[in-house]
Design the sequence.
């Protein structure tokens, strides 16, 4: 190795030239596997609604697609341009308002 460098995230020693910019901190370099793991973590999430249902989302940036699931079952897939988490947050806000409206009509 010409310039062995430990990954600050996992500690694995890799060639400095093979390291990538940290997805969340441009001042930090990480190995390829940590970069992929962090990117995947950044492109998914979940929230619980007022009735205990878990809504989760997973974005596929290469295709501009966000998939939203309810309790593990795919509910809807949408295209997005920027910030998939904000798309999910908007969906979740509408979801909770719809639940509230349905509850009031009962």
Sequence:
């Amino acid at each position: 190795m010409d310039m062995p460098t430990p990954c600050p995230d996992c500690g694995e020693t890799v060639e400095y030239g093979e390291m990538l910019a940290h997805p969340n901190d441009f001042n930090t370099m990480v190995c390829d596997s940590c970069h992929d793991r962090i990117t995947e973590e950044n492109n998914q999430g979940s929230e619980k609604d007022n009735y205990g249902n878990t809504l989760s989302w997973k974005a596929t940036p290469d295709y501009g697609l966000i998939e939203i699931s309810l309790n593990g079952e795919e509910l809807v897939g949408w295209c997005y341009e920027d910030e998939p988490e904000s798309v999910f947050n908007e969906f979740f806000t509408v979801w909770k308002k719809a639940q509230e409206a349905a509850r009031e009509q009962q």
